[in-house]
Design brief:
single chain, mainly alpha, Butyryl-CoA Dehydrogenase, subunit A, domain 3, three-stranded antiparallel sheet, 3 strands, elongated
Length: 145
């Protein structure tokens, strides 16, 4: 895969990492209605995921437009994107396992009202993990490995 293609894929994954926290991550079916909460609404620390996504976008654009002039620069760009993706994976994985304490003002998780994890939560983790893989693939190809 060419550096331009890897950069474009990396940038697209970064954009998705930036968008997914604003989609519903949690839901609860209460009598008469369904309540949802985005990642940002449910967990304030989820704000780090879009910021890390922007780091991945910038790295992807730098790779795609071939703005990285040296092997050492390419290594740093790739490793920075990989680190941002890995931090996002860790953050989202924690939010998959542990429900945020302040899930929703109307509903407290209880045995009678299960809190469901929505697909966007898992998609955010998948996008971040894919960004790590693509960034490390770029580092490998950029340094001639």
């Amino acid at each position: 895969m060419s550096a331009r293609t890897l950069g474009a894929v990396l940038a697209a994954l970064g954009v998705s990492m930036t968008i997914f926290p604003f989609l519903p991550w949690y839901a609860a079916d209460v009598p008469g209605r369904r309540i949802t909460a985005t990642g940002i609404e449910a967990a304030g620390e989820a704000w780090s995921v879009p910021i890390l996504g922007l780091v991945v976008v910038v790295a992807g654009v730098a790779v795609a437009v071939q703005a990285v002039p040296s092997v050492a620069g390419a290594r740093w760009v790739g490793l920075t994107a990989a680190a941002a993706g890995a931090l996002a994976v860790a953050m989202v994985a924690r939010l998959v396992v542990d429900l945020p304490v302040a899930f929703m003002p109307d509903v407290r998780p209880a045995p009678a009202i299960p809190v469901l994890r929505e697909p966007a939560l898992f998609a955010a983790a998948a996008a971040a993990a894919a960004a790590v893989a693509v960034a490390l693939g770029y580092v490998r190809t950029a340094v001639g490995g």
